[in-house]
Design brief:
Strands 2-1-3-4-5 form a five-stranded parallel β-sheet, sandwiched between helices. The protein has a single domain, classed as Rossmann fold, CATH 3.40.50. The longest helix is centred in the first third of the chain and has 16 residues. The protein is α/β, with parallel strands linked by helices.
C-alpha cells in the first residue's frame, strides 16, 4: 500500500511555487498518495459561509495531516512560513514522521525544525529517500 504524504510548504512567490511544484512532481511520480494544500485550496468564494474561508482551510489541512502517514516540509532556511511551521509541529505532536526538505543549499536551520524531524534532505535526495524505512538524517549546516 502506498504511503499518504502531506506536503507542507509556502507558495507565496515564484521560487516557493517552483519548489512546491517540483516536490509535488517528485512525490507523485514515485507513486505516493499526495495531499498538497496548494492543489487542494478551499476557494474563498466557495466557502460554506462568507468569512469562514480561513476556518474551512484550517480544518481541511488539519484533517489531511491526520490522514497522512508522513509530512514532508519544504524549508527555506531561517525564514519560515508560520503556517508550514505549524503544520509540522502539529504532525510531530501527533507522532507522524516529518521529513524536512532544505531547498536552499546555503541556508541555515532553526533547531526546532532540524531536530523535530526524522530526516533533513535536499530536493534531489527527495527523489530517492526511503519512505518505508524512514532513515534518520541530521542537518549538516549551521543550526541556530
Amino acid at each position: 500500500m502506498s504511503k499518504r504524504i502531506y506536503l507542507a510548504s509556502p507558495f507565496f512567490d515564484e521560487f516557493e511555487l517552483d519548489c512546491v511544484r517540483r516536490a509535488e512532481d517528485i512525490l507523485t511520480k514515485r507513486g505516493f498518495e499526495l495531499f498538497s494544500p496548494r492543489l487542494n485550496e478551499v476557494e474563498r468564494d466557495k466557502a460554506e459561509e462568507p468569512g469562514l474561508w480561513s476556518a474551512e482551510t484550517f480544518e481541511n489541512d488539519r484533517r489531511n495531516i491526520d490522514l497522512s502517514d508522513v509530512v514532508v516540509m519544504l524549508y527555506h532556511g531561517g525564514y519560515s512560513d508560520s503556517g508550514t511551521a505549524w503544520e509540522c509541529g502539529y504532525a510531530y505532536a501527533k507522532g507522524l514522521p516529518v521529513v524536512v526538505v532544505h531547498v536552499r543549499e546555503d541556508a541555515d536551520s532553526n533547531l526546532m525544525v532540524s531536530q523535530g524531524c526524522r530526516a533533513n534532505v535536499t530536493l534531489e535526495e527527495l527523489e530517492s529517500y526511503d519512505f518505508d524505512g524512514l532513515p534518520k538524517k541530521s542537518f549538516g549546516g549551521k543550526i541556530f
